[in-house]
Design goal:
Layout lengths: L3 E2 H8 L2 E3 L5 E2 L1 E2 L9 E4 L16 E4 L11 E3 L3 H11 L15 E2 L4 E2 L4 E2 L4 E2 L4 E2 L4 E2 L4 E2 L4 E2 L4 E2 L4 E2 L4 E2 L4 E2 L4 E4 L4 E4 L2 E4 L6 E3 L4 E2 L4 E3 L6 E3 L4 E2 L4 E2 L4 E2 L4 E2 L4 E2 L4 E2 L4 E2 L4 E2 L4 E2 L3 E3 L4 E2 L7 E3 L8 H12 L1 H17 L3
Parallel strand pairs: 4-5, 5-6, 6-7, 8-11, 9-12, 10-13, 11-14, 12-15, 13-16, 14-17, 15-18, 16-19, 17-20, 18-23, 19-24, 20-25, 23-26, 24-27, 25-28, 26-29, 27-30, 28-31, 29-32, 30-33, 31-34, 32-35, 33-36, 34-37, 36-38
Antiparallel strand pairs: 1-3, 2-7, 21-22
Protein name: UDP-3-O-acylglucosamine N-acyltransferase
Family: Belongs to the transferase hexapeptide repeat family. LpxD subfamily.
Enzyme class: transferase
Length: 342
């Protein structure tokens, strides 16, 4: 969309317009950098002072902040949510593909819905089902019998292995791999024996997956990602993991095999989750969390050691290594005190 009037924006957002509804908005920007033709938003009242010098043609804000701005405004309940909606309306991101490129390979047994677009050098293997309005970017590989739902978009060089199911209205960023073998091996007197991974990956609707992320297929049953899950870049989701509805996972996180994550969880970046554990609904794990055991109760959990000056860190590390020795000494003192009746 090239431009939209404030009156049209107010109608689409269900906002209260105060000011000139004929003003045209062509893009959105932060308060400190917004200029003519742009709209911005105030989601945190502690930044009210920036409204004084704001050069945007309009601001989205709450009723409580109206008195601090004297220009055109859209009064809304949740400015940050409205920012997301306006960004969608003004989005200029190109499509992943248009039409079906001559260099794409589409097996004769594949089923394509209406308005499917497939980019250059993409491969669509036998038995694949692509829903309506699916976009397959350049260089993608869609393995045998995979199913991709309506309105799902894959950016360039995504790999979808055989039998994987990907729901409707999903978005997968470049170079992600879904359905590769899980890490399954038996050991025969020091020799590794591969265990064929016979499950698949089943991903729900409205799931977004970042770039260079891997989601392994199950060993016997499927790896399952529920609807409305968002998964960031460069993540490892191992075989037979289950992720519940509405969970959000930040970049660099590793989830080991057969772990179950509940609904509406938030997993901070660079976290590591052990295998064969369960995370309850509504759990928040802050960045670099190391989760070694199941979490049974909703709440916020943290681990890791914050950055310190090197000298302080060395002292801390030395003390950590001496915890066992200190514990033994403490128990000996407690035993002596108990013997004296103190």
């Amino acid at each position: 969309m090239a431009a939209i009037t404030l009156a049209e924006l107010a109608n689409k957002l269900g906002a209260e317009l105060r000011g000139d509804g004929t003003v045209e908005i062509h893009s959105i920007a932060s308060m400190g950098k917004a200029a003519s033709g742009q709209i911005t938003f105030l989601s945190d009242s502690k930044y009210r002072q920036q409204l004084i010098e704001c050069q945007a043609d309009a601001v989205m804000l709450r009723e409580a902040d109206v008195e601090f701005f004297h220009g055109n405004m859209l009064v809304v309940k949740d400015p940050y949510l409205c920012y997301a909606l306006v960004a969608q309306l003004l989005d200029t991101t190109p499509v992943a593909a248009t039409d079906i490129a001559p260099s794409a390979y589409v097996d004769s047994t594949a089923t394509l819905g209406c308005n499917v677009a497939i980019g250059h050098n993409a491969v669509i293997e036998a038995g694949v089902q692509l829903g309506d309005n699916v976009q397959i970017g350049a260089g993608c590989f869609i393995g045998k019998n995979a199913i991709i739902g309506d309105n799902t978009k894959l950016w360039a060089n995504v790999t979808i292995y055989h039998d994987v199911v990907l729901g409707s209205q999903c978005l997968v960023q470049s170079s992600t791999v879904i359905g590769a073998d899980g890490f399954g091996y038996a050991n025969d007197k020091g020799e590794w024996v591969k265990i064929p991974q016979l499950g698949s990956v089943c991903i729900g609707d409205r799931v977004e997956i970042g770039a260079c992320t891997t989601i392994d297929r199950g060993a016997l049953e499927d790896t399952i990602i529920a609807d409305n899950v968002i998964i960031d870049n460069q993540m490892q989701i191992a075989h037979n993991v289950q992720i519940g509805y509405g969970t959000a996972m930040a970049g660099g996180t590793i989830v080991a095999g057969s772990t179950t994550i509940g609904k509406y969880c938030i997993i901070g970046g660079a976290s590591v989750l052990n295998g064969h554990i369960k995370i309850a609904d509504g759990v928040t794990i802050t960045g670099m969390g190391m989760v070694m055991r199941s979490i049974e109760d909703k709440g916020m959990y943290s681990s890791g050691i914050p950055l310190q000056p090197n000298k302080e860190w060395r002292r801390t590390a030395t003390r950590v290594h001496r915890i066992d020795e200190m514990n033994k000494r403490l128990k000996a003192v407690e035993k002596q005190l108990a013997a004296k009746g103190e």
